[in-house]
Amino acid sequence: MSGRRKILAGIALAGFLVAFPADPGLAKRVWREGRKVRKAEARRMDLQAAEAAVAAKDYDAALGLYQTFLQDFPESDRVALAHEKMGEVYFLQENFPAALGEFQFVVHNFPTRPEAVEAGWGLALTAYKLEDFSQAAAAGKSLFPRMRAGERKDKVAMLVAECEMRLNYFVEAVSWYSQVAREGDDPALMENARSQALKLIESRLSMAELQNLLQTETDRFPAEPALKQLALKAYENGDLELSQSALDRLLRQFPDSDFVDQARELLEKLSRRKKVDPGRIGVILPLSGPRALVGQKALRGIALAAGIFGGAQNPYPLELCVRDSAEDPAQAARAVEELVMDEHVLAILGPLVRSASEAAAAKAQELEVPIILLSPLENFSYPEGAVFLDCLTKAAQVSALLDWAMGEKKLSRLAVLYPGDSYGFEYSELFAAEVIRRQGTVVNKVDYPPGQTDFTPDILRLLGLTAEELRKYRASKSGPPLEFEALFIPDAGNVIAMLAPQLRFHKVTGIQLLGINSWHSEELLRQTKPEDLAGAVFADTFAPELNRPPFVEFDYRFRKTYGEPATLIETQAFEAMAVSLHLIRDLHVENRTQFTQALHQVRDYPQVLGPITVQPSGEWKKPLVLFTFKDGRLEVVKEKEP
């Protein structure tokens, strides 16, 4: 055939094919179940088979069928469905990473397809299972607007709330729970959501978080319980203005609230608590019980400073509101509340006993009323708070003694002989810890039963000797060998009057005896021989021997008023009242905040026992004096400034 004829034949064949096209049904058939079927039918059969495998819990077979479908029909409009179903199967197998990948594929690649809604729900659930709460919450939030109202939408909101709670985003969690509680379709789910929101509002949300919640949530739920909780929390934390603001808003927005009566009671308490009479000072002391005599002593010092007996010129009307603590912590705490709520005092002085002081301090800090404690509390610290301490502490005495013994005298090996009660144990532990901190050595610590009169067994333990060995050493000229250079004995003067002579009898001499301020006693001097305590040193803030002019003037007034000399108890109580009067009279403080702030600023304020400085912790620092026994009398070793 010539070339021209070949071309004409090709044209004719092409025309034939156009005129008579191939059967499209034959071109779109694939093999299924031993026969050729149309692709549309094959797609349907594959998906039905996969669904049947899932129903039969043959998950591996189902996955294989879905994967075959995707290989055979990559351009199908059912690709999104297949991936979403594979995600469900992986989820059922608890293969959560694989499930996550399938759901993410659908959400990211087919965001407008209906399958993206199911995939979004699967993504949120799977991320939650994997404890990826951030991704789970994000998936739920993205999905939520696309869902119709109903149980599934409520579950999405509950899941988001749970995730926010796990992430410590409590405000957001409350908002999501509240949406279900208000707008849900399932009563049981709504009640659960309400319960969860209330738990967070009442136990987890801080005041700042409650305020944030109330900026965005104005519906009755959660606004009503949030306002209630904010009012209570603010009151407990001393933010009275915020508490009142929350109560006012609650009563204005929800006048039929179940909390109305309680809110009005709280508003009345707020009014009583905020009211202050700048001319009233509260006093809490043990005026009954075993310590009543000590309480009466302190009250005499306070009354003298206040000018109750005309001993001081005070142009400002002043009233003392006195309460009995009776050494009872609960009674002391109640007294603080009564003085604030009923008497509207500016500040409080006392108590004296430690347990009562601790309870009173806690209540005063809660009510934000300044209180000056007159009891020694160790590890005292209320930085910039309303609690202050005007009392010589164990730690201050130990520090002063060791500054002298280890710092100036270069003694490094020390021992402790102490009463076996809480008082002696605290002193022993403080002393030993401070010696070690200063790189000294605690050679021995020995306790003895309180109330005993024969200390020989305890001296034997202190020296590490038997009775026979001690007897032999006592008979010798040199006495027993001593491994320590100083001995600290933290006990009262009447005990030292018995113990010191026994130490000398057993020839425990040539060492430095160290004591505490209760050794500052004329009775102790009378009951011992000069050689029993010769050279012994103790620390005290009470130093009438110095004849400082402020003390001489105070002592004259005290003797004139009460007919006897003052002790440390009366003196420190007098100072507490005198400093309080200084704030009222000279600095013109009129409310508790001003009183607290002014007291924290006190520096080197001249007083009876020396200048007073209030430390940031609230503890008052005064000069300490080191005394020694010499020739049957007391002499000053050193004055230690605060």
Give me a quick take on this structure:
By secondary structure, the protein is an alpha/beta fold.
Structure overview:
By secondary structure, this protein is α/β, with parallel strands linked by helices. It contains 27 helices and 16 strands. The chain has three domains: 232 residues, Serine Threonine Protein Phosphatase 5, Tetratricopeptide repeat (Alpha Horseshoe), CATH 1.25.40; 174 residues, Response regulator (Rossmann fold, 3-Layer(aba) Sandwich); 147 residues, Rossmann fold. The strands form five sheets. Strands 4-3-5-6-7 form a five-stranded parallel sheet, sandwiched between helices. Strands 9-8-10-11 form a four-stranded parallel sheet, sandwiched between helices. A three-stranded antiparallel sheet has the order 12-15-16. Helix 3 packs antiparallel against helix 4. The termini are far apart. The N terminus is likely disordered.
